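Risk register update: the risk of archive-format incompatibility is retired. Evidence:
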Amino acid sequence: MVQIPALKRVKGRAPLSVVVAIIGGLALAGIIFTEDLRSLTEIMEKKKEPKRTSPQARSSTKVTPPSPVKTAFDPSRCSVTEGYWAYNRSKKLPYTDQTCPFIDRQVSCQRNGRPDSDYLYWDWHLDDCSLPRFDPAAVLEKLRGKRMMFVGDSLQMGQWLSFVCLVNSAVPYTARSMERTTTLSVFTATEYNASIEFYWAPYLVESNSDRNIRLGADGRVLHVDAVELHAKHWKGADILVFDSYVWWMTGRRIKAVWGPFGDDGHEELDAWVAFRLGLKTWANWVDANVEPTATRVFFTSFSTTHLRSEDWGRPGGVRCYNETRPIARRGYWGSGADRRMMDVVSGVLGRMRVPVTLLNVTQLTEHRVDAHVSVYTEAGGQLLTAAQRADPATYTDCIHWCVPGVPDTWNQILYAHL
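Archived output:
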């Protein structure tokens, strides 16, 4: 048996076994330190995480993450169509249909018994710019000594009601007045000597149904080349905001005359052709009668309808009935806005002498399937009964909007341009 001689201890050096033990100990300590550091890091990261939000808020963040840097709103370069709806339950509503006494029953959804309210708490955020909040006091100062008029159909009336309610919060009760007729309605802020008016002209041009709104689509006849009976009421306004669309879409064909309405003869035109003729008549009047240095002119683009639930992936739905969330898909485009009609608007406005600012609300409105009056409205001047609400296929209104609601965003964009 061969014996291995004992190792001699070398002065100043530790035995190999001790060295191994020390290295092992250091390695173990390193592992423990690493694990402790990892645990500490996880704890700190959890502390940094935002508080858990509601399902609606989580859904909104999935739509589009906000841009890290946004510049102030500049109408010449900021697109109001590029953005996303974000849920903000913490925001303070500037008014409700209880606090603003001027809202028509047709659009007073909460007062009419709508059980949900999430549709009130979605904000439109632009991708690259910051859209300013509506400032009632600033608006009233801009309107001091001036006359502002909204002209158009019932959707434009909803925008006017929204605008009035937004500024009303900054006007003392004793310093305001409201006068309403079937044709002209005037809200006056007496302290500012300012009026905010609405004039009923659903086609802008003259028609036999301007006063008889119950006249069915088959009985409507338009003077596509006549506007003066309406336009004489627009003269002298400092700010004019027009709209016209939905009434033109009540049928594929529109009856038009060039003589008195009593004449038997009329011509049937494609809706978009009649629309182009009528809009040119309006544009000619604006160019001939409006002085750009004295009057600003706006045109609100089409307010979309939501009449086909198949458009947003709900083939079994009843139009917008029972919808409580916006359509999240970026760039969603349904069947509620006719692109050919939009081309008519851009073409006519682009050739006008007087500059007209287009308030392009169509894309942002496309997503808001949740904000229509639905069955929380009236029909024939009477609030829908429980039996009628139980028949959404017959009574659901997916054209008009609850107020407050989407029209507030239209006015936020209008304010940004003012």
